[in-house]
Amino acid sequence: MNLTWTAIRGPRVGTYDGEVKILLPPSEGKTPANSGSPLNLPGLSAPDLNPQRKKVLSALQKVSKRKDALGQLGVGASLSADVERNISLDTIPCAPALQTYSGVLYEAMGAPDLVADAMADETLAQRLRNVHVFSALFGQVNGLDPIPAYRLAMKTDLGTLGKLSSWWKPVLAKSFTIDPAEVILDCRSSDYRAAWPGPHEQVVTLGAVKVNGTKRSVVSHWAKYYRGELVGRLLADERELPTSSADLLSRAEESYEVEFTPHAKSRPAALTIVLRD
């Protein structure tokens, strides 16, 4: 399903609206739009990032034209069409970020349906603008920002720019500022957390563990699934979004067995979904 969506900027990044901000990783796989307008950087949220976005886009297009592009981008031959598409990212159709990103988390979240519903529901649309996907190409975009399907990982070294997580970190530190009262639900993987760690006293990471007797193990696939499922439930719920870590914990407990670890000086708080055999 592809929808035509014109970017409508919500509050500026850093404007506190009393609700949780949700941080997502991008998916490696993306769904190219069949129709829609081409990339319009001035129309994206966080327009202060556009000079940096242009630099990464230009570097990515140059690398993607090289004979060794697959190796430079760390992908196999099966993804050659994705890399070739990188060359035309400024001319191919775009779709809302939550429709472009695919994979386990976004499927569990019901992201395409949320985008479709938001076209007729401004309250939901504003919630999706409070979802921020951290991106190696764009730094970060909100859930309704129209973007093309690209292939680029945050751990990639783009030559003169270096490793992108390191390159974006000082940029995002200045751009992605938050209110001191705000709570951040962080569903990102480590590479994307490295680009913007956030203040430990405000960030709550979301994960999942599998418990079998006394044995506990991290389950990457299911962690993605349950992150997406909880986020989808929060966004689709008619109630207001949580406004504190206590609210987050309470809402998660409605659907899962969970554990909560408060923040410490060296780490953020952690909300963990417990899966028992």
UniProtKB/TrEMBL annotation:
- Chain intervals for the UniProt region annotation (Disordered): 26-47
Q: Name one GO biological process term.
A: response to hydroperoxide
Q: Which domain of life is it from?
A: Bacteria
Give an example GO cellular component term for this record. Answer: cytosol
> Can you tell me where the transmembrane regions are?
none
Q: Which PANTHER family match?
A: PEROXIDE STRESS RESISTANCE PROTEIN YAAA, PEROXIDE STRESS RESPONSE PROTEIN YAAA
Please report the name of this protein according to its UniProt entry.
Peroxide stress protein YaaA
Q: Which organism is it from?
A: Brevibacterium aurantiacum
Q: Which gene encodes it?
A: yaaA
